[in-house]
Amino acid sequence: MSTRLLVAGVGNIFLADDAFGPEVIRALDRRPLPPEVRVRDFGIRGMDLAYELLAGYDVALLVDAAPRGLRPGTLSLIEPELPDGAAAGPPPEAHGMDPAKVLALAARLGDEPLPRVLVLACEPELLPRGDEDIAPGMSETMHEAVRQAVAALHTVVPVLLADPASTGPLSRPDESAALSPAGLRPTVSGGAEDR
Fold it and tell me: What is the value of pTM for the model shown?
């Protein structure tokens, strides 16, 4: 039986470097992953992603900008601790994308365990200030990181297709192997493991 793998871009294209996930998915149009991999841009549609996580995948790889205190443009492959469906918190807004809340909602909705979830995270350089509703345009650092993320996905995805329980190394010298644990977002405490 073949591995079912989802690569999901998440982020808001109108909030500067938060557009990283959707931009990586667009770049994959020019350099596609193997045809058996489902590649989809979820943007800020958290509810859609929660339901997609229940579609029988072995692995879901989320691509997102995530402030973790690293040098801007640094890619990290992290594996968050998945929530227990019974202990899940409040659902996400219908048009919001907080990956931790989306995972909690999916855990609560499904009867089966969630797939293994990995996050290809990139440290942003430009984030909107609190008073900005729209800040279009990614930084040059993130544009370069998009190219590197596509290369990283072409390294990691074949390894996951061959063995959903393993994770190949990223081909960057600044991958997160030596970093301390971190969450998907600064508001998520603990429960994640760098790979």
Answer: 0.78
Task: Annotate the chain with three-state secondary structure.
Answer: CCCCEEEEEECCCCEHHHHHHHHHHHHHHHCCCCCCEEEEEEECCHHHHHHHCCCCCCEEEEEEECCCCCCCCCEEEEEECCCCHHHCCCCCCCCCCCHHHHHHHHHHHCCCCCCEEEEEEECCCCCCCCCCCCECCCCHHHHHHHHHHHHHHHHHHHHHHHCCCCCCCCCCCCCHHHCCCCCCCCCCCCCEEEC
Q: Is 140 exposed, middle or buried (0-12, 13-18, 19+ CB in 10 A)?
A: exposed
The model's pLDDT over 80-128, given as tens digits with 9 standing for 90+, comes to 877 665 554 555 554 456 777 777 777 777 777 788 999 999 999 987 6
